[in-house]
Amino acid sequence: MPPKAKGKGKKDGAAKLAEKENLARAETEILSLQRLLELRSHEAVESRRSERLWRERMDAFNQALEQQKEDTLDITADMMRQYKAMQEQLLKKVADLEADNRALKQTVEEKDGEIKRLQDEKAALKKACDVEVLGYQRKMEDMQVDFTQMLRETLDKMHARLAQAQGLT
User: What's the family (predicted)?
Assistant: First the structure.
């Protein structure tokens, strides 16, 4: 080794001191950067955890939304089936009621015809009875007239015989 110079020793000491200071600053900077790295790593972990939680929530919401869509479609389909079944029942009921109505109208028409026929028969029977009663009344009047004539003739004969019998006595 070459001999040390006096002036160089101070420089060496100053350089060593500067190196020590640089080393201390570098160590402090390394520690600071390590802490910053730990903080950033921790923030990154927290961000990933928050992102995972957010994604899980989004997946849960998406699943809930899909389930709700399926439920809505199922309910809609069920309601449509019920509506169509009810519509078919009502249409059948309407058709049955219309058929019943037609049958009842036919029955009413038949009954009305029968009532009309019976009323006509009754009127004809009443007319025939009235004619028969009039015939009997005329016959009775004729018999009354005949009986009256017969009684007069008998009375006239009895008066004539009485007058004859009185004239003979």
Answer: Belongs to the DRC12 family.
- CA torsion sign for 38, 39, 42, 44 is negative
The residue whose two tokens read 């390394």 is: 30
Q: How far apart are CA 106 and CA 71, in angstroms?
A: 52
> Structure tokens of 79?
């309601």
pLDDT along the chain (169 residues), means of 10: 51 78 87 92 94 95 96 96 97 97 97 96 96 96 95 92 81
Residue 141, SS3? helix
Q: Tokens for 7, please give them.
A: 């002036």
- Residue 96 corresponds to which amino acid? D
CA 29 to chain centre: 80
Backbone angles phi, psi at 3, to 5 degrees: -65, 150
Q: Distance of CA 14 to CAs 17, 25, 62, 76, Å?
A: 5, 16, 68, 89
